[in-house]
């Protein structure tokens, strides 16, 4: 999978090297390229923002550098990419969307800053690829970078071969619509706290039922919204 990221803070993405994705990048399973939006400006100050038409607080990202960046990145590409813009006004990014995007051969992420990007950029991007505006959750970040880091990690680990054991991907939280069951390791007693004895029983059927019960009860307590249907 090819991933292009456009940002005015490209070094933020150095952190991707350290996560589990670093190995996948070395092996060529994930080919990630980060682009500095300011490289697509032409003025002495490498300006990427301007005041909003209609007035209001803050600055808006100018369309011209975005147009040049998208032309450069998508222009030579083989397939029509999925172009993601993180936005607090976007559709919620879920495990199901991460699964869907993990099947795309080419993803382009545009990281906004300031109060956001000139709306015409989304319209232009839709001529080059399938545009998705995606929100990590109902809180406001200072820009798209942290959201893209989370999305690249969530999507990248679903690309076949990136995570060692594919079973661990299916078992985990959100793939079956329930929260995970609690996990324990040695020692069996730690600071007077015992591991639930059923996990030491060797009865695999009983362990499986207990874990499923735990998943349902935790989901009911912490995330009743997931049980609504
Ligand atoms: C940008 C900003 C003021 C946005 C109404 C680009 N889930 C999520 N939260 N926040 C973002 C995503 C996000 C994504 C991209 C962003 C926030 N900002 C900051 C400031 C109003 C805004 O939108 C700029």
Task: List the SSEs and their pairings.
Elements: E1 2-7, H1 21-27, E2 31-36, E3 49-50, E4 60-61, H2 63-75, E5 82-92, H3 95-101, E6 106-110, H4 120-128, E7 130-135, H5 145-156, H6 166-171, E8 189-190, E9 193-194, H7 204-222
Parallel strand pairs: 1-2, 1-6, 5-6, 5-7
Antiparallel strand pairs: 3-4, 8-9
Helix pairs in contact: 2-4
The structure holds ligand JFE.
Ligand JFE binds next to β5.
GO cellular component, one term: cytosol
Subunit structure: Homodimer.
Organism: Microbacterium testaceum (Aureobacterium testaceum)
Protein described:
- The protein is an alpha/beta fold.
- The protein contains seven helices and nine strands; from the N terminus they run E-H-E-E-E-H-E-H-E-H-E-H-H-E-E-H.
- It folds into two domains: 163 residues, Alpha/beta knot (3-Layer(aba) Sandwich), CATH 3.40.1280; 56 residues, tRNA(m1g37)methyltransferase, domain 2 (Trp Operon Repressor, Chain A, Orthogonal Bundle), CATH 1.10.1270.
- The site of ligand JFE has 18 residues, from strand 5.
Q: What characteristics describe this protein?
A:
32% helix, two-stranded antiparallel ribbon, alpha/beta, tRNA_m1G_MeTrfase_TrmD, five-stranded parallel beta sheet, 229 residues, Alpha/beta knot, binds ligand JFE, EC 2.1.1.228
Segments where pLDDT lies below 50 for 5+ residues?
none
Q: Order of strands side by side in the largest beta sheet?
A: 2-1-6-5-7
Order of helices and strands: EHEEEHEHEHEHHEEH
- Strand residue content: 15-25%
Helix segment tally: 7
Main pleated sheet: 5 strands, parallel
User: What is the count of structural domains?
Assistant: 2
CATH architecture descriptor name of the largest domain: 3-Layer(aba) Sandwich
Mean pLDDT: 95
CATH fold-level topology of the largest domain: Alpha/beta knot
């Amino acid at each position: 999978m090819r991933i292009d990221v456009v940002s005015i803070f490209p070094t933020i993405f150095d952190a991707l090297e350290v996560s589990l994705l670093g190995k996948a990048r070395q092996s060529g399973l994930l080919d990630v390229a980060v682009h500095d939006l300011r490289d697509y400006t032409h003025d002495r100050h490498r300006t990427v923002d301007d005041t909003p038409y209609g007035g209001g607080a803050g600055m808006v990202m100018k369309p011209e550098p975005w147009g040049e960046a998208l032309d450069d990145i998508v222009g030579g590409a083989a397939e029509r990419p999925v172009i993601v813009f993180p936005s607090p006004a976007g559709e919620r990014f879920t495990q199901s969307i991460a699964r869907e995007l993990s099947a795309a051969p080419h993803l382009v992420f545009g990281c906004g800053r300031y109060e956001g990007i000139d709306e015409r950029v989304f319209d232009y991007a839709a001529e080059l690829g399938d545009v998705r505006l995606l929100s990590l959750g109902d809180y406001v970040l200072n820009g798209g970078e942290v959201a893209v880091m989370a999305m690249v990690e969530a999507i990248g680990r679903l690309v076949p071969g990136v995570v060692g054991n594919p079973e661990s991907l299916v078992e985990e939280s959100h793939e079956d619509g329930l929260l995970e069951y609690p996990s324990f390791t040695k020692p069996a007693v730690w600071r007077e706290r015992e591991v639930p004895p059923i996990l030491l029983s060797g009865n695999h059927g009983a362990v499986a039922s207990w874990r499923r019960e735990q998943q349902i009860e935790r989901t009911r307590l912490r995330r009743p919204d997931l049980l609504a249907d």
